[in-house]
């Protein structure tokens, strides 16, 4: 009888803290030992020449989230979304359970469980999107749900069907403080966006490109500052998500320098796409492929985002995977979207490309260290969202969610190579160096050389516990 189920031998292990050459012994899906000459195993994987890192944790993805009836629906559910995740080296995702206004949160969560159960290739949790913070939601449902492992909420400062006013934001922040949960804030100013949208429409500026014009960095900066002020007022930590550029980054940095507990997240599109992508070919419909919120900005913003990453302003790097078809009757430009950018569904697919692009642009170009890469793609997500010390590192006791990464492999991202259900990737043609060659989910090889070897249903729901992290 062998000592272990699996040994990963000869690789260079990378954690958020260290880089070291070590074998990894796995039993029952958990890392049980690291070091050399560990013993015998039923199966061995040769990792020589490869980096061995904790599987990615993508704490910002949208899967199986319904859009308004009669409008294009999100195309990845848990099966295709987590398939795409593992192909890109991500082994845990935290999508959202969105409360429809008027609905209870408990029923919302049960609904999302039924969408996910038995459908996932990798482990998952849920953030709760609060659209209707009633006394019942704040007083009873949220405290009970946090205790049940839903330790983070998202609130929106824009979007007709989700926006909260300042009083409601304050109520949710205070509730999160009491129950020790982390609030993620979508910071864009609702009134300013509506005003700009109507003005652009009156001027006949309705192409997808004007989506970006309707919500420039100023509206993101204003909302970020307002959210920060509310958080400071109540002394509650918040996370400003999908920060797109210099203006909001500087607000977060300013707050952090003053000792206000503000965290920041940024995403692939803000280091790899620009507002000009939304022009398409000569302002045609294809610009809609890049429509998301906040919109991609410009090269100065890319620089600012890297400044924030290197300076510790951002703790997490996510994809904000939110996929829609481009072509066909469910496509981004169907129905009213032809009449104005206002109706183009917001969101891009990207869970599969997050680590590839971040590695290539970050580690590959000398902007961040390998250890920072692991922190920003895995460890910090685990810590902030209540998954540590189960996920997010390579050490005895952690789940054997592990990726083997070839730092020298050069690839070009193409839709043909993708594992999502969307019919395009916004990163088509992007060249990267560094690539995940094998993904293990709790000790099982889930993807090898782009071929899915895991089974749908391998992924389990993660009950999270954030209380240990809150100071
Ligand atoms: O455009 C985006 N980001 N769509 C997803 C929803 C959100 O705000 O994160
Ligand atoms: Zn958002
Ligand atoms: Zn590009
Ligand atoms: Zn999102």
Automatic annotation (TrEMBL):
UniProt modification remark: Carbamylation allows a single lysine to coordinate two divalent metal cations.
Amidohydrolase-related domain segment(s): 51-445
GO cellular component: cytosol
InterPro entries reported for this sequence: Amidohydro-rel, Hydantoinase/dihydroPyrase, Metal-dep_hydrolase_composite, Metal_Hydrolase, Metallo-dep_Hydrolases_sf
Cofactor requirements of the protein: Zn(2+)
N6-carboxylysine: residues carrying this PTM: 154
Stretch forming the signal peptide: none
UniProt similarity note: Belongs to the metallo-dependent hydrolases superfamily. Hydantoinase/dihydropyrimidinase family.
Record function comment: Catalyzes the stereospecific hydrolysis of the cyclic amide bond of D-hydantoin derivatives.
Name of the protein in question: D-hydantoinase
Naturally occurring in which organism (per UniProt): Cohaesibacter marisflavi
């Amino acid at each position: 009888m062998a000592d272990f189920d699996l040994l990963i031998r000869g690789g260079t292990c990378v954690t958020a803290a260290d880089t070291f050459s070590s074998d990894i012994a796995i039993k029952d899906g958990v890392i049980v030992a690291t070091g050399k000459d560990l013993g015998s195993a039923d199966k061995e994987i040769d990792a020589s020449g490869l980096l061995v890192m904790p599987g990615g944790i993508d704490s910002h993805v949208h899967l199986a989230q319904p859009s308004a009836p009669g409008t294009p629906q999100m195309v990845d559910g848990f099966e295709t979304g987590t398939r795409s995740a593992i192909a890109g080296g991500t082994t845990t995702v935290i999508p959202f359970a969105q409360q429809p206004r008027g609905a209870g949160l408990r029923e919302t969560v049960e609904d999302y469980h039924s969408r996910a159960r038995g459908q996932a290739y990798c482990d998952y949790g849920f953030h709760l999107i609060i659209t209707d913070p009633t006394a019942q939601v704040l007083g009873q449902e949220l405290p009970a749900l946090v205790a049940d492992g839903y330790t983070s909420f998202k609130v929106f400062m824009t979007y007709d069907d989700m926006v909260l006013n300042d009083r409601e934001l304050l109520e949710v922040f205070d509730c999160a403080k009491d129950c020790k949960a982390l609030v993620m804030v979508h910071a864009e100013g609702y009134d300013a966006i509506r005003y700009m949208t109507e003005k652009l429409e009156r001027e006949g500026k309705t192409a997808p490109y004007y989506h970006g014009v309707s919500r420039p960095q100023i509206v993101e900066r204003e909302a970020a500052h307002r959210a920060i002020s509310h958080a400071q007022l109540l002394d509650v930590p918040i996370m400003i998500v999908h920060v797109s550029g210099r203006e909001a980054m500087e607000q977060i940095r300013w707050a952090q320098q003053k000792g206000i507990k503000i965290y920041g997240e940024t995403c692939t599109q803000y280091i790899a796409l620009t507002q000009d992508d939304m022009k398409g070919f000569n302002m045609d419909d294809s610009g809609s492929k890049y429509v998301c919120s906040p919109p991609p900005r410009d090269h100065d913003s890319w620089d600012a985002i890297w400044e924030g990453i290197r300076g510790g302003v951002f703790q997490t790097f996510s994809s904000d995977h939110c996929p829609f078809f481009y072509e066909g009757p469910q496509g981004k430009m169907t129905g009213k979207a032809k009449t104005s950018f206002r109706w183009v569904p917001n969101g891009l697919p990207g869970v599969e490309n997050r680590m590839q692009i971040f590695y290539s642009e970050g580690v590959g170009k000398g902007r961040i260290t390998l250890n920072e890469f692991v922190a920003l793609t895995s460890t910090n997500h685990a810590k902030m969202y209540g998954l540590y010390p189960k996920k997010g590192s390579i050490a005895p006791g952690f789940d054997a969610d592990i990726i083997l990464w070839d730092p020298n492999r050069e690839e070009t991202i193409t839709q043909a190579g993708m594992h999502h259900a969307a019919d395009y990737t916004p990163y088509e043609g992007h060249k990267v160096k560094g690539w995940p060659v094998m993904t293990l989910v709790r000790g099982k090889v889930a993807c090898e050389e782009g071929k899915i070897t895991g089974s749908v249903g391998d992924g389990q729901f993660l009950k999270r516990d954030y209380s240990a992290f809150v100071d």
